[in-house]
Write a structure and sequence with these properties.
Distance between the termini: 38 Å
Helix content: 40-55%
Shape: globular
Length: about 300
């Protein structure tokens, strides 16, 4: 896809979604340059076409996340393959395939957006004044973590437990989910929230515990019935998914309301040590950490 066509198609979709392409021309240009880099290979033609065909903001933002994720790899000479079928019995596809050394990593992306009631509260307050104030209490923070777990779980299985997207681990084929959590916990999600999601209360200091049972957490003889129920709920996930890439937007990067073009991404990798050896964990961490921007504690 040539540059002129990218300019025309991007402006068209942004106009359709209500963005002033004149006022935000500098931001648009930065994002357009990312699209041009992806268009230089044949790997992302379908992704770009999906982006340009978006009819609503949520759909558009999801494809923008896929673009930014691909750009962070491609701009560092790390090749991704777009949309790969890994299950023979259904048509669901994994977003990306990444290969290095002797490993093949399948990566499915998910953009978790803010709860509607929070978005509406912000909009009402901002319409009345130039700021807003919202607080989450302990029970709400717990609910936010459970909501995140459910979003992640639905990326590898349906509500009835039917597997989707990923096949069971075979040899050196690994399954990852990259989840964009930028808007969670009032845009202030931190590393402890992510570790709670995956390994539960035992993985964080007492101050940050919320009564959460982690998706990769083990049970013991002293575990409660409720913990055993969660353990069974996450069984397929625990036996199938090797890694989670938690992703968020770098604060103050390319901000334009809720249209996420040209936001920079930073990453927090958490690995499933039930499935991976220490050697493999170290190799994956070193490889991805060599070119993906690390999640900064100064973002919140």
């Amino acid at each position: 896809m040539n540059k002129e066509r990218i300019v025309r198609k991007l402006d068209k979709v942004l106009d359709r979604l209500g963005m002033n392409t004149v006022i935000w021309s500098d931001t648009i240009q930065c994002f357009r340059e990312k699209l041009e880099i992806l268009s230089e290979t044949n790997n992302y033609s379908k992704l770009l076409n999906n982006l340009f065909a978006s009819n609503d903001l949520n759909e558009f933002n999801s494809y923008v996340f896929e673009v930014q994720f691909a750009y962070d790899f491609q701009s560092n000479n790390q090749t991704l393959t777009y949309e790969i079928a890994t299950l023979s019995h259904n048509n669901s596809r994994v977003d990306y395939c990444y290969k290095f050394n002797d490993l093949t990593i399948y990566i499915e992306l998910k953009l978790v957006q803010q709860r509607n009631e929070i978005s509406k509260s912000k909009e009402v307050q901002l319409a009345m004044k130039s700021s807003y104030q919202i607080m989450l209490h302990g029970n709400e923070e717990f609910a936010e973590n459970i909501r995140l777990q459910n979003h992640i779980l639905l990326k590898c299985q349906k509500e009835d437990g039917t597997p989707i997207k990923f096949s069971k681990p075979i040899n050196n084929m690994l399954n990852f989910i990259a989840v964009n959590v930028s808007e969670l916990h009032l845009d202030m999600i931190d590393e402890y929230d992510c570790r709670l999601t995956m390994y539960g209360d035992c993985s964080v200091p007492p101050l940050y515990r919320r009564g959460v049972f982690g998706m990769w957490q083990d049970i013991s003889v002293t575990s409660s019935n409720q913990e055993r129920i969660f353990f069974e709920k996450f069984r397929y996930f625990r036996e199938t998914i090797h890694g989670l890439l938690f992703v968020r937007y770098v604060r103050h990067s390319g901000i334009m309301s809720r249209m996420f073009i040209d936001r920079k991404l930073e990453y927090l990798l958490i690995l499933n040590r039930n499935l991976l050896s220490e050697k493999t964990c170290s190799m994956i961490s070193e490889q991805l950490g060599s070119f993906l921007r690390k999640w900064s504690s100064f973002n919140t």
